[in-house]
From TrEMBL:
Source organism, top-level taxon: Bacteria
Main localization category: membrane
Cellular component aspect of the GO annotation: plasma membrane
Membrane-related topology note: Multi-pass membrane protein
Protein name as annotated: Carbohydrate ABC transporter permease
PANTHER family per record: ABC TRANSPORTER PERMEASE PROTEIN MG189-RELATED, ABC TRANSPORTER PERMEASE PROTEIN MG189-RELATED-RELATED
Subcellular location: Cell membrane
Family note: Belongs to the binding-protein-dependent transport system permease family.
Amino acid sequence: MRSKSSAERRRGIALHAALFPLALIWLFPLWMMFVFSTLPENGIFSRDIILTPSDQFVENFNLLESDTGFIRATTISILVAAAYTFLSVALTSMAGWSLACYRFAGKGVVLATILGTLTLPYFVVVIPQFIMVARDFGLHNTLFALIVPPLFNSLGVLFMRQTFSMMPHELFDAARVEGVKEWRIFLFIGLPLARPAVAALSIILFLHSWNNYLWPLLINSKPAMMTAPVALGSLIGLTKVSWGGIMTGAVMLTAPMLVLFVALQRHFVAGISAGAVK
């Protein structure tokens, strides 16, 4: 037993020794992004190799706020990402539940259609979607236009379908025998069992909405409705690029997501790995 435990310890040490340099390579760009956010406006073009932070972060943030209204844009991004995540998780969970637990005419066609949408590039869909929302419905420059059109997520539906398919359906049948209504079975039995998958999907969808740039750029023309990524993009002009503001905004958008992932990584890994074991 001692030899086995010592061998496992040596393998663990060797694995960490191999992964540590890879972790440094991954973290180095994030560190340099933070360093650049603390340098003067043109410090990024300095001939010297600067690896330590300076003292211009507050000045860069003040310039960022005065140029873009970054606090307002970040608030809009938080509201949009939170609403999008909640509604999209609810929609994809219900769709996945119906595909996993019910038999109905055309189920195969529906599943094939959802799979087919994964092969379509987003740029094929975004222009008709923009015309429908902005011209036909007149909903441009609204929170509704930011949240609702991208709600349906094919990958999320298939992910939740796989999650519900792996559950013991005898448990659901027993609840039906006891007279439990279908919506209660889904809400109080299915969803609690799928909690790791729901947590993983929530993180993925929140990050997707948080980083979304193209759709908010197209559907909103008012500065007051800009999301944070669009606000950062507005700093890139024809004759001037505010590198200090861009790096400062990038740090402020990245840091909360890193903290969120570290705090919820146990649920994320459990939800992703659940589909690999049946």
